[in-house]
Amino acid sequence: MTSIPEMSFAVVGAAHPNADGSNRQFEILLCHAGEPVTLVPEPRNPHDRHAVAVYSCRDVQLGYISADRARQFGTQFGGDLVRAVFQRRAAFGAWVRVGFDGKEPHLTSAMLAEPVAQADAPIDEDPGFYPDEIWPDD
Predict the structure, then answer these.
(1) 7-103 has which CATH code?
(2) CB-based contacts of 4: which residues, under 8 Å, 6+ apart?
(3) What is the pLDDT of residue 3?
(4) How many Å apart are CA 11 and CA 108, to the nearest integer?
């Protein structure tokens, strides 16, 4: 039997508040690379029976594994051999690294690198605003 290789999964839904009032985005800011996270399948979730919640080591929900990946790997997330760690923050929420063979997933420096924005790149290619020319006073 071939084992599933380690994978990185997107954690989405960070903008939504938790039921207990805690803030997912704040909790993501507290997380460090390599911290263990817990994956909890939610087969009774009224919005998606394949939903997989992600909890920090402080037992605060960070969000959910993206729906397409949860549907694809949902049955594996509930196993005893699944190990997951926080990988890094992202604009949409976070990334987690998951191992399916019972071993802690490893993180490389490339996985931890934040995307670098080019300093000289315009924020908006076509801003739609063009200031009037300043004409010399004659």
Answers:
(1) 3.30.70.2330
(2) 73, 76, 100, 101
(3) 74
(4) 19
Indicate the domain borders of the chain: 7-103
Report how many helices (DSSP H) and strands (DSSP E) the chain contains, helices first.
3, 6
* Predicted confidence (pLDDT) per residue in 35-77, tens digit: 999 999 999 999 999 999 999 999 999 999 998 998 888 777 7
Nearest to 92 by CA among 1, 24, 2: 24
d(CA 28, CA 13): 12
Q: Which of 104, 92, 100 is nearest to 62 (CA)?
A: 92
DSSP 8-state symbol, 80? T
Q: What is the pLDDT of residue 94?
A: 95
| Encoded amino acid at 39, one letter | L
Per DSSP, what are the bridge partners of residue 83? Answer: 99
Look-up of token digits 């290789």 = 5
Q: CA-to-CA distance for 115 and 129, rounded, in angstroms?
A: 28
Query: If you ran DSSP here, which 8-state letter would residue 47 be given?
Result: S
